[in-house]
Structure formats: C-alpha cells, structure tokens
Amino acid sequence: MTMRPRLRRFVLTTHVISSVGWLGAAAAYVVLAVLVLTTPNALIVRASILVMQRELLFVILPLGCASLITGIVQSLGTTWGLFRHYWVVFKLLMNVFALFLLVEYTKSLVGLAGRAAHPDLFGDVGFADHAGYPVSSGADLHMLQDPGHIVHSAGGLAVLITATVLAVYKPRGMTRRGQRQQLEQRRSQNERHRVPQAQKQ
Amino acid sequence: MYGARSGVGADTHTGAEQGREAITGPPRWVKVFATISAVVLVAFLVVRFTVFAGM
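ok -> structure tokens follow
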C-alpha cells in the first residue's frame, strides 16, 4: 500500500525530526556521561545523573520510539518496503537493538537516579578540593560514576550515526524477497501489456 | 526514503537491477557490513554482561 504524497511527506518529516533529534540528544548525553566520569565534584555528579535520567525518560526514549514507529510506517507506505532493501533492514535491526538496550539502560539509570536524589547520599561531602568544590571519596560517588554510562551512550551514538549514513547514502542491494516481488511486478506488468496487444490483433 | 518527486519513494536502485531476471545474492557491502556489525555486537554484549554486569 503506497501512501498519498501529502501523508508520505508528513510521515517522512516526523521520521527525520525524531531520528535527528534522537541523534542530537544522544550526543548531548555523551557529554553528560563524560562529565559524570571525569569530575571529582560529587554535587556535579549527582546533578548530572538526575539530568541524564530526565533526558532519557522525556527526550531520548520518546524520540527513539517515534523514530522506530515512523520509520516502519514510512517504509511500508512507500515502494521501499520494510524487507526489500538491505539498508532498510539494517536500519530497522539497528533501531530495534538500540531501543532495546536503551530501555534496559533506562531501568538501571532510574534506580541510580533514585539513589542520587536521596538526601543522605554523600554522607562525607564537606571536603573541598583545590578549587573549593565539595568532594566525596566514598562508595556512593563510585557507584554513580559507573563507566557503563559512557559505554551505552557512545555505543548508541555510533549506531545512530551509522543508521543516518545508511539513510542518506541508501547503498544498493535488494533482498531475495525484494527481488522476488520486483520480478512478480514486472511479470504482471508485461502480462497487462500483452493483453491489449493481443486484442488489437 | 524520500518521496517520488525527489527520488524518495521512487526506487532509484532498480535501474541497475532491471536487466537481471535471476535472483542474486547480497552485494559485497552487505557481507562486510553484516560481518563488522556481528563482531561489534558480540564485543559489546561481552563487555556489557561481564565488565559492566551491574548496569
């Protein structure tokens, strides 16, 4: 089923906005993750974790879901199809995989943010570093500064960049299913042409 | 995936494939991409569930 041009353009615009928005939000998330892992300031770590949680829940996750849904609608509503071209299949797989990991990571981050928001978290805050910032050397800070933040965010960003490159370049290559459909279409078109010619004779 | 007017929705790759009647295997870039993706995926999963199992 092919969408009408106006609807197709609307779905395409929504897909581009959600996908590019997801990419930008993921890049901003990487910056926060680096800040969390590198700063010795316990309060900055705590604040960053809380911002990261809200960014995940209210920006990245909704944009990821919107990107997947609009991508599926867009491919099914155009001649590209969902399983006709390899680049579309790869994009779909990457999107589903990224979204699955995102949900898993969000669950753990929500728990972490809950602990970060607890008023008694940094019991030993009160020491100051050379710049006068509060420093915590305790286990709480170590718990919040999990390297998993950077692994997930940088990995997700790499996947999204790859998906964007595929969407722009659209490397050629049809799947077996796509080729079969194309052959069937061509055959049916040829038969339709033959019938009027036979009637003329 | 861009509309028929700008080449979106129109199948821009079919021109090169119109001459083919037989079903062919995947092109080279697909094999390379799939291999790299599989290696990266396995490496990621190993790191994710061993080193960062707590996350």
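Helices of chain B lie at 14-17, 28-51.
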